[in-house]
Amino acid sequence: MSAETVCPLCDRPRPRGANRCRCNYTFEYGPPMRLSASGGSLRPDRAGLGQAPIVATAVIAAAIAYFFGTGIDHAHLAPGTPIPWILVAIGLFTVCGALFDWSWFMGNRRARLFVALFGRGGARVVYGLIGGAMLGFAAGLFGHVA
Description:
The chain contains 4 helices and 2 strands. By secondary structure, it is mainly alpha-helical. It has a domain at 52-145. The chain has a two-stranded antiparallel ribbon with strand order 1-2. A hairpin with a 6-residue loop joins strand 1 and strand 2 (42-44). Helix 1 crosses helix 4 and helix 2 (83-99) packs antiparallel against helix 4. The chain is rod-shaped, with a radius of gyration of 23 Å.
């Protein structure tokens, strides 16, 4: 692929080091951009991973954990215990951190291990798996505690 040297719209030479002509023609596109979590500035999409794999992983993990949660003897849990609600809060927080790719969430010292092992996109899938499992297990507990 060769770089364009002349604008096809206005026939002007390409300005040195520019991606756009004066007529606003784009010579080449950079990496996909999105809004950063810290403000309104645009930054490159580092992960390159959509939200569909994370949602699918969270749903599958939730379904599996739900069946494990329903198969456990819950006689020791008193009615009205806050444990399922705590699991729901932690699970939602973890899934949202993975879905929205919060930089402060993935930059946490505890998350750095997963980022180093699996890359940022893989760590997002792992956190979707963990959060979905917590939500599914909480759903299994709600059926027996309530």
